[in-house]
Structures are given as C-alpha cells and as structure tokens.
Specification:
Chain lengths: 113, 111
C-alpha cells in the first residue's frame, strides 16, 4: 500500500527565513498530495494541495513542488512568521483507492522571533 | 455550519472497559475517517468509510470497530480498551479526492 515518509521531524528557523519540508511516497501513480497544518489542541487544516498534473503551486508565502519521477513533494514557506509555528503533515491518496488518505509522520516547525 | 463534531473531547478509561467515540458531519460529504495521532507517528488511519453502508480497514484497525450509521455519522468503538490505545483520535470527512475536514479530536487515556 501507499507509504508516505516525511522529513525533518523538527525544524527551527529564524523569523523571516524560509522553511522546507519534504515528503516521499511509494505509489508512483498517486494523484493527490495535500499539506495540512495543525495548531496546538486543534485538528489539522488544509493549507495547500497539488495534483500530479502540476509541478508547482503557490499561495502567497506557501508553495508546494512535486517531482513525480523521484516520487517526492515539498512544502516551502517563505518569510516565516511566529504564527507559522505548528505541526505540518503531508499526505497522499493511493491510486488503487482514492478514498484512502495516508499521512506522513509530521514536522514540528518552530519560528523564533 | 459546525463541520465535523466529535464527542467526547476527553475520556479516561480503565483497561478492559469499552466505549464509543462519536463523529458527525453536516457537510454532506461521502467519505469519513478515523485517525489516531501519537507522538512521532503522525496520523495513522484506523478505519474509513467511502460511503454510507461501507467501511474499510486502514493501517491500524486492530482493537477497533466502526459503524457508519448514516451519511452524517461515523462512530469508533473500543470493545476492550488497552493502554496502547491511549492516543488522540481524529475524525474527518471528505468529498472525493479533495480536502479532508477534521474534528477537534478526542483525547483518550487508558489506565
């Protein structure tokens, strides 16, 4: 089945710096790759997603890139702010069952003022 | 419009006790999910339901049962709780291959 690996598990950056989180997936035909942000005491919320027919997608300070050949996708946050501090999860939907949504192990991002 | 609502928010059980975690969504989404979240292990899929009347095992189904009562409700049952089931449980709802909406979570402790 689909396996999603995420790195790093923790990431500390200075305010204003960029942060990059990487994920790899096992099902080469997977089509949908979302990223979620989880703030303390809350459920995860979608921040950006990308489909396999697109190589990059941006939304203000957040971008996601997809490399289908290497089977990895990355979240890029530019000009980080303290409110970006949270746990970030990547996920993938396997093609054999698009109803399934498999998550990575999460990255705790800390942005220091 | 509440989205996805989970009850209870907190629960302490003794080993061997049973309980049901409730989840309801008001978004008319077809798919519903139960995940557990443990430190360092991310969100692991327990069971999911692609539509009313169907349920399927996820990555870690042992020790759990589910019921998709109707389109709105998807419950998770622990028949005989074990300390290894201490976790934060999240329910989610989704329409096709799109955004999943999560509830606020249930923090369960089994002593």
């Amino acid at each position: 089945g689909e396996n999603v690996e995420q790195h790093p598990s923790t990431l500390s950056v200075q305010e204003g710096d960029s942060a990059v989180i990487k994920c790899t997936y096992s099902d080469s035909a997977s089509n949908y790759f979302p990223w979620y942000k989880q703030e303390l005491g809350k459920g995860p919320q979608l921040i950006i997603d990308i489909r396999s027919n697109v190589g990059e997608k941006k939304d203000q300070r957040i971008a996601v890139t997809l490399n289908k050949t290497a089977k990895h996708f990355s979240l890029h946050i530019t000009e980080t702010q303290p409110e970006d501090s949270a746990v970030y999860f990547c996920a993938a939907s396997p093609t054999y069952n698009t109803d399934k949504l498999i998550f990575g192990t999460g990255t705790r991002l800390q942005v220091f003022p | 419009n509440a989205g996805v609502t989970q009850t209870p928010k907190f629960q302490v059980l003794k080993t061997g006790q049973s309980m049901t975690l409730q989840c309801a969504q008001d978004m008319n989404h077809n798919s519903m999910y139960w995940y557990r979240q443990d430190p360092g292990m991310g969100l692991r899929l327990i069971y999911y339901s692609a539509s009313e009347g169907t349920t399927d095992k996820g990555e870690v189904p042992n020790g759990y049962n589910v019921s998709r009562l109707n389109k709105r409700e998807f419950s998770l049952r622990l028949e005989s709780a074990a300390p290894s089931q201490t976790s934060v449980y999240f329910c989610a709802a989704r329409l096709g291959e799109t955004e999943a909406f999560f509830g606020q979570g249930t923090r369960l402790t089994v002593v």
